Amino acid sequence: MKNIIVLGGTGFVGRAVCERLVERSGGADGRIVVPTRRLQHGQALRSLPTLDLVPANVHDDAQLARLVARSDAVINLVAILHGSAADFGRVHVELPQRLVRACAGADVRRIVHVSALGVGADAPSNYLRSKAAGEAVLMGSGLDVTLLRPSVIFGTEDRFLNLFAKLQSLAPVMPLAGSQARFQPVWVEDVASAVVACLDRPETIGKVYECAGPTAYTLSELVRLAGRWSGHERPQIPLPEFAGRLQAMLMEWLPGEPLMSRDNVDSMRVPNVASGRLPGLAELGIQAAAMEAVAPGYLGQAFNRGRFDRWRTGAGRE
Ligand SMILES: NC(=O)c1ccc[n+]([C@@H]2O[C@H](COP(=O)([O-])OP(=O)(O)OC[C@H]3O[C@@H](n4cnc5c(N)ncnc54)[C@H](OP(=O)(O)O)[C@@H]3O)[C@@H](O)[C@H]2O)c1
Question: Which of 10, 46, 128, 156 for mutating ligand 1's site (highest number of atoms within 8 Å of CB)?
Answer without folding.
Answer: 10
